[in-house]
Amino acid sequence: MSQQVSIPIALRLPAPDIEALIKGLMIAAMPRIFVNPGRQFALYPSDTSSNVLSTEQHYRSNFLPTAQKSLAELGSETVSIKAWARCELCQVVDESEPLDFLPHLTVWTKEALQQTLSKRGNIFLAYLRVYRLPQPLKIPVNPNPRFVPLPQPLTVTQATPVLNNAFFEQRCRQMQERQPPLHPELEELQSAIALLSATNPIAEELDQDIKIFLGWASSQTARRLDSDLAWVQKIAEVGNSSDGNQFEKLVRKSLLKLGFTNSNQNPQTSLDPATTGGAGGLDFYCEAPYPVVGECKATKSEKVPDGTPAQLIKLGYKHLQKHYDSCIKLIVAAGDLTVAALQTAEGNKISVIRPETLQNLVELEAQYKGSIDLMKLKERLQEAYGLADEKVEYYLAEVRNEIKVRSQLVQAVKKLREQGSEHLTAEIRVYYNAVLAKEPKSRLNELLQVHDLLVELSSPLTGYLGRIKGSDWKSDRFYFLRDLQVD
Questions:
Q1: pLDDT digits (tens, 9 = 90+) for 365-424
Q2: CA of 52: how far to CAs of 31, 147, 187, in Å?
């Protein structure tokens, strides 16, 4: 459990600066006084009257919407404190030092820094380790220009850091060594997407994924349980009931969640989860990445009759005609198949899975986005006409094992961090095989295979590791960013 800390004061900073700190966009502040390292305080948001330039000139253009929004939220009688911080370092920057590096690592413009330095004579640059408060604290407005006494001491913990340890240390090194940001293009993309995230769920998800990769979200939020799990966990329950319409809608939602699509507006050959195929229509039809046509059969106890696969064949040819033959044919049914139904399914290349199997597929995809390879799933279904649960469950076991191996590789890099920040592929493989591979068959013997996995884990779309490219692939170095948790 995180140790509790009592904080009696707050440091006054412009509201946009505090918002940038809370979002993890920077770790620096420009207080009006030198702040002793180790000092802890809440962050009191104020207007930008202490800034030398206007808001439009002081902040970088991609941050302006956030800056303006934070200023609009300031109240005339109370302020809302959302975070507290500990000063890790405070540097004095004078006119002898170039400021070119700072705009790339903060939200301030170069012109704002130059004007501030010219007016003040020097800049106090405080490196702040910031922690979010569980709930915002409202206090009366206080005119004190620097430190503001709180009405009552604030009891806090270090349980909710904005940045994890590795990222904060990396940011500190970048600031101290005057290094440019590692992913400037990705940071620009995140700023653009953030403007859409409030009203677009897809943009919000991508925004969060990018922030996790960049380190702008804490390790505690690195693996978020997908909000769709609420309905995903009802697939088997509804499939084993008499609610056929609801089950059909859940199957359609499941296929969309797995990555299937259909742009067809015909309700009888649709994948729209808000509707059903209706009388004479297909229960579901997917166009891409390959065509899938199918029937759903929710049932409490009765067996699945021969009429179910026969119906699929009849309606498939009716609506798709010659295209039906090239489709994957799938039935999702809760009951046992009669002998005749099984024979019809096998003879007509129809795969049958239970609702529980579909739920397992979608749950894994919801927990580990992109883990289900639809082309590999296609191969498994084509290997199992008739009852296909065993083949699909075997595929799911393979995927879980692949995730476990990747999780252990991330742990290997994390453990090696104690001996140094970056490590070669060969060093990581040796540690993994010696410590984490419990069985001989789980060892990774091919160095290039390990390197490929490490590159995958360090890609911008995963962000579990970081990568420093060498002169060739063997000299690439990798470092830990965030955990890949497995159940």
A1: 988 888 999 999 999 999 999 999 999 999 999 999 999 999 999 989 988 887 777 889
A2: 13, 20, 26
Within 10 A of 351 (CB to CB), how many other CB atoms are there? 25
Q: What is the mean pLDDT of each run of 10 residues along the chain (487 residues)?
A: 80 94 90 92 93 92 87 88 94 82 88 91 93 88 88 87 81 82 71 60 67 58 54 91 92 93 85 82 93 92 90 94 94 93 95 95 89 94 93 93 91 84 88 83 87 90 86 91 79
The structure tokens 């911080």 sit at 85
- Cα dihedral 185/190/196/197 (nearest 10): 160
Query: What does pTM read for this prediction?
Result: 0.56
Pairwise CA distance, residues 413 & 436, whole Å:
11
Instruction: Write the Ramachandran bin of 413: left for phi over 0, alpha for psi from -120 to 50, otherwise beta.
Output: alpha
Given a contact cutoff of 8 angstroms between Cβ atoms, the answer to whether 211 and 82 are in contact is no
pLDDT in tens, 43-88: 999 999 888 899 999 998 888 888 998 999 888 888 999 999 999 9
What number of residues does the chain have?
487
Lookup: tokens for 215 = 């380190």
Measure the CA–CA gap between 452 and 429, rounded to whole angstroms: 12
DSSP string over 325-379 = GGSEEEEEESSPBPHHHHHHHHHTTEEEE-HHHHHHHHHHHHHSTT---HHHHHH
How far apart, in Å, are the Cα atoms of 292 and each of 221, 273, 295, 346, 413?
35, 15, 10, 17, 41
- Give all domains of the chain, ordered by start, each with its CATH number: 5-182 (no CATH), 229-387 (3.40.1350), 400-480 (1.10.10)
Q: How far apart are CA 410 and CA 414, in angstroms?
A: 6
- By C-alpha distance, which of 424, 434, 409, 407 is closest to 468? 424
